[in-house]
Amino acid sequence: MRSSDKNKFMESDVALYGMFVSVALVMSYIESLIPINPPVPGIKLGLANIVIIWVLYSMGIKPAAIISVLRVLLAGFLFGNLYSIIFSMAGAVFSLAVMFFLKKVRFFTVIGVSIAGGVAHNLAQTVVAMIVLENVWMASYFPALLVSGVVSGIAIGILGGILYRKIKILQPDKKQ
Amino acid sequence: MQKNALKKLFSSHKFDFLLGAVLLLAALCLFVVFRNSQKDGGTVEVRQGTDVIGTYSLSEDGEYEITSFYGSNTLVIKDGEAYMSESSCSDHLCEKMGHISKVGETIICLPNEVFVKVISGEEGYDAVIG
Question: Is B106 an interface residue toward A (CB < 8 Å)?
Answer without folding.
Answer: yes
